[in-house]
Amino acid sequence: MENYFQSVVIEQVHPVIDAGRYPIKREEGDTVTVSADIYKDGHDVIVAFLRYRKKGAKSWTDLPMEHLSSDRWQASFTVTEVGRYEYTIMAYPDAFLSWRSDLEKKQAAGMNVVSEILEGQRMLKDAGKQAPAKDREVFDKLVAALQVSADPRVALAIFNAPELTELMDRWGDKSLATHFEPILEVKVDRVRARFAAWYEFFPRSQGKVPGECSTFKECEERLPDVKAMGFDVVYFPPIHPIGMTNRKGPNNTLTAGPNDPGSPYAIGSHEGGHKAVEPKLGTLDDFDALVQKCHEMGMEVALDFAINCSPDHPYVKEHPDWFFKRPDGTIKYAENPPKKYQDIYPLNFHCANREELWQEMKSVIEFWIQHGVRIFRVDNPHTKPVTFWEWMIGEIQNDYPDVQFLAEAFTHPKMMRVLAKAGFTQSYTYFTWRNFKWDLTEYMQELTQGPMREYFRGNLFANTPDILPTILQEGGRPAFEMRFVLAATLSSVYGIYSGFELCENAALPGRRSISIRKNMSAKCGTGIARETSSRLFRRLTVFVKRIRRCTSTIISSSTNRITKIFWYMGSAAQTNRISSSSPSTSIPFRDITLMSIYRWRVLVSRSTRLFRFTICSMTNATCGRARRIMSVWSPASRPPMSFVCGAGSSGRTISTISACSESRGYYLKPAVIGSCGPHAAFKSGRSAGQNRSARFSSRASIYHHKYRCVSPTCMRLPEAI
């Protein structure tokens, strides 16, 4: 590093974020591939090394880089531990290799090379002076052998010996080496940062008595159901004491009834603040037992870190200077015009005593870490300084590198991106608002094929209590199922809010919020309605869990998207492989539902292409003599194309369908036709839903939603997985 003369040009290094200002992100066990343009003046032979080390280590590990083409070089290393790694590139003109190349050319041309051989001997002597005693003896022997023989061919053979080349790589002249600056970093997280399924678990709404707040102990009873649906992160909204002053009622009404629990985001009362739990939920020991139960079931608890204070929070009396003040000296409540949050006081992170405030917020995270929490969902981080998050997350992860942070920031894209760069492990996305192929395609390409793939892990939440898209309000269960499958397969990290499996879609008039929001009430979390709806939805969630479990080890870490998928077809011994790059595959009919949705997803996230399906299925005894039909249609106003499967050998029905997708793509939809026979098939030109009842028996599993989604519950899902 002492050499300030850059003899080699190193540029266009990839991956790098903002010229090295922020680290890239990977997960333990991932491979980091680094490439760069490396070149220099003249004809010298260039040698380049990728250097890496665990941050804090003194020595580097050097890996030779491979020259690809057009001055592009590349090498890879594996990150094996959670934490931070450093990497850079070193390149230099190799004097020995350059000299040896010229020697070979001159000898081949029949030129006198006596002077060149003497020059080579001097190089070996100089390198020997830098080497330890053992290697110095080897250098001395080689120099003596060169002095004995005057034959240029013998000299060239000695200079080309692999042992000598290796010694010169170690001890040759590197005085003109160029080191890329600044030193770059990789933030390595646990695999759960990349591959996880989140379930928002509202603790006070898990009881059996309507209107009564449930406890942590009652929450334990629901954990097996959450686990069965394939979720491994149980996310808790704030569990702290709730203030009484200006407490809100249902649907954010200004007047709360005597039994209204208020918003859990109005944190703090005489019973404590951010380091206490709401007494109605139980005690800290009860919470610890719940966390331990989750761990025993292979799940983790994610806790909401909401930096909000009710007027009753202890901070208000102990640190009034931490808050925003009006001209009359009173504390200002939170506002997002025209919305008002009279029950919340926001903290001023630029106050005169901000260092004490920042340290206190850090201590809140450390407190819950000591109670077994390793994942935090941060509420509205875009309303606090980015420098605070970069400092606090960095400080926490220096001591607890396995801790993860999810940024719940629905704001303008640049702020979402800088929060991810500053240290947030995962980020909320605009997926909730993306409902059509063109905007899903555009958005997923932005997340997975551009610079964001190196630092932004999008957590696709299908809904939130405050965001109920029109498609969910009007689409019914098929829309909920479609959004669930899209979220679970478009990203390796996804989540739903409790109640999603119940298809709760009653919205506030003129708004996109769920009516009688859970954060303003204590809803009954069990009963016939939950059991029935959850059971119907669970069949789909379990099926998706099975797909994700099979793909968990082959998710592309740098893109957060599924690249290959394995399905168990029939018996456990029979496995068919389905790759997104393979347009043709054979699958049993019972699994065609998710396959059709998956293939539709491929059309969403990848360029459209000619595709081909072959359907092979055994006749289902419970459905009599069934025939299989695959319907293919375009989102445009055009008639569906239907194909009736023909008879195959060994009792199988086989049909091959080919369709050329246009830029809008095709949707694939399977249907089972009962004993009505093939004459009941569609006629080309007939609009969807026209006279369907006259052409299908009661066993026909067909559904057409106005959003043109596939309804999985209308298909034949496996009874047991």
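The above is record 1. Record 2 follows with the same two-line structure.
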Amino acid sequence: GALVLRESNQEIRVETRPSDIGNWNDLHIALQNIKLGDFSPFFLKKNRLEGDLSGEVVIEDPQNRFNISTNNLKVEELRVDNDSIGLVTLAANYEKSTGMLTARGNNADPDHRLNFDAAIDLDDPDNLFRDRITVNPDNFQVKILERFVGTLFSNLQGYVTGQVNILGEGASRDYVGKIRLKDAGMKVNFSQVFYRVEDTDIELKEDMIDFGTIRLRDTLGNLATATGYIRHKGFANMYYDMVVQTGASPMLLLNTNFSHNQQFYGRAMGTGSLVLLGPQHDMYMHIDAQASEVDSSYIVLPLSETRESGQASFMVERKYGREMNENGYSGAATNMTFEVNLTATPLVNVEVILDETTGDVIRGRGSGNLRIASGTSSPLTIRGRYDIEEGNYDYTFQTFLKKPFVLRKGANNFIEWTGDPLDARINFDAVYTADKVSLAPLVTGLALNENLSTAREDVNVIVSLTDKLFSPKLSFDIEFPPNSSIYRDPSVAFGLQQIERNNNELTKQVAYLIAFNSFAPYENYATQSFRPIQEFTYNTISGLLFNEINKRLNQLLGSILRNNDLTLNLSGSLYNRGLTGLTGNTQSNLNFTLGRSFYEGRLSFTVGGTFDVPLQAGIDEKVNLLPDVTVELMLNKSGSMRATFFYRENIDFLTGNSAGLRARRYGSSISYNKEFQSFLGALFGTGSRRGGIRKDSTIQKPRTDSVQKPASDTTVVTKGGE
């Protein structure tokens, strides 16, 4: 008889057979397609072993001799962590009397061979016998070694040939041998630069990997040399002492983006040296880099993280437990501290991101010396000064108008750090040029030459930013290009002086030039006359600003409350109270509403109000709050019939006194909405004679359950009171 354990295509068959060499029974265990991944976690804590095991194991005289042997074990599709080895065959023998385990095996790939044999004494408490495992790779892939250096290097490529002897027991094993690298390469994780390694020999000593002198080349073929060693104990507790020195030609030193390093990133060509020193759990990297004078480089400092660009804590997915994956077994955890001494040349472009959401960025090309330090558990610090020879400042006006300012050459533009990257000191003189601006709005108010009313000239808006990078002191100025013919008229210089003397007027003119490419009408503060153009302009600007504010607020509400049923709306306007003449009784309205829909949009409730605010001291200074409440109900499935109930208040200047009376209105209405192709078709129930939709048209009809507001509506009856 036999004991058979089977699951799917896996099978273990256990049976006894008479021995061929004695008068006892042997135990035969036949294995077929046994999944190693189901058992490897019990005896391999740091690596993942996968594959299908098949073959036969014989236990000779289990009660007495207990010798174990196998000659035909094989593992198909063997994988160690994430590296595929393929088919591996194994023969092994264990003698209980001596405690000696011997084994030999190899893979089946003829182009990339891996042979091994072992002699291990399992019954040697005094360690009198030195265990030995010999590995002979022949053009075998070097990628399998990535698990030992994965925190520093990745994308290992190439092949290795030689012999490695693993001697000793347990964690104190020594790795001794000599191997030759061929067609090798690797990517440095810190810089994300891939280097080719010229064919070389590496010597493995008992507690050290001696690299000798290795020649590296970047993807452009530029040369560097690396010397040094790595001390270790059984490929654990590694201690690095490496020096890399570039040649005379600049080579690629940095090739990162924001996903690789959120403190600084970019692409840099240059010369210099790199020193890597210390144990793997607390390493120190020092880089001295001289930027190339013939190849351009750029460095980005994303110093700003706005609320919109950051990730809210409630959006972070929580994970519990532990998942086995290759990243968890790529060497011990590493704390890296680095210092980068960068000597910038005029070909180095530095980009400082002030606001990621709006896109406010300062870009400059210049020279200087920067010392950048940071680490896995250390904050970013920057020291030094970067002088900008030329560049630009992308400035977003009122969150939605992006305007490019060009840094003035020779204006002593610089950024200077003393440690905290957010506490930099700046000095920028930037210019925005408004093209072909009409001078007509200034002619009357500033008493300019009448001939200038038809003139159009380029106008430079000068902004000076000084003091702190994220809280700068701003000053503005307006000027015409130096070669402009406008300076021939003395009234222009006088007019600019008038604007510059009034800071509020200067700010207003700058805002108009940036936002509308136009001068604003000059304010004559001596009069209170009615200015309809000014009020129209103010209402236009407020409409643009409130539209942007509404969009941002509703995005914020949607992200916080996680539903789209709640809407917030703000609006504002200016109007003149004067009914019988052009008086200066200017008022402002600030309207706000908060709406919520229920029952899949069939019932909507809106509550809001209006702040009515006088803007001039010569009239009643009373501020009124006027409530407005509306409830709308759909009476049929299509939403074509709706009932509305309302209560609202406003100011009645027709029947009231100078301050106006508060009028209260409430009531209800029923409306019927219908879509049609033509007005005649709506009245007489006929389709349009031209361009109408045929009955057999393939255009789909509107959905009958649509709750969208139709193209037109007609109020049938209104009922209310006041």
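The two ends are 102 Å apart (CA to CA).
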